[in-house]
Design brief:
The chain has about 160 residues and is of the alpha+beta class. Helices cover about 30% and strands about 25% of the residues.
Length: about 160
């Protein structure tokens, strides 16, 4: 028996008419939080709503969601970055597809739309990070034409 919110696993790719990509809206916060948590970044709907409000108000960022019958099945966050040491570029802040919908073209569609957004911003490259433990994700990005440019250690200091 299916539990509330559980999705049915299928390996059939989505047909173009079955999925739409659109800009995230404040009312998407709960679903975005569920997906972030699924990927290993525990977040409450309240936390995501607060973060999303800031992101949606910044024209240098976009959150795009993939919506199928039944609701949002994935999202990508893309940011225009301007650094001293490199030309402006887009950076993928996060990409997540519902585990029951992976392998159906959702991630590819979201990345394509993020790249299109970057081009519209006049950016000529897209940068992203992937945890070394996420081998499937690395293969996915390589299939899309992304190349490993460096390995690094991430640091954080709580303030």
């Amino acid at each position: 028996m299916k539990r509330k919110g559980e999705r049915t696993l299928t390996s059939r790719p989505f047909a173009p008419s079955e999925i739409a990509v659109r800009r995230a809206r404040p009312q998407d916060a709960e679903r975005l939080a569920e997906l972030a948590t699924e990927l290993g970044y525990p977040s409450s709907a309240t936390e995501v709503a607060r973060r999303l409000e800031r992101v949606l108000g910044d024209g240098r960022q976009a959150v795009l969601v993939a919506e199928a019958v039944g609701g949002v099945v994935g999202w990508v966050h893309v940011i225009a970055t301007f650094l001293i040491e490199s030309d402006p570029q887009a950076e993928i802040g996060g990409l997540v597809v519902d585990q029951n919908h992976r392998g159906r073209g959702v991630g590819t569609l979201l990345m394509s739309q993020a790249e299109q957004w970057a081009r519209a911003q006049g950016l000529r490259s897209v940068y992203l990070r992937s945890n070394v433990l996420r081998r499937e994700a690395q293969r996915f990005y390589e299939k899309l034409g992304y190349q490993v440019v460096k390995t690094q250690t991430a640091f954080r200091k709580q303030l």
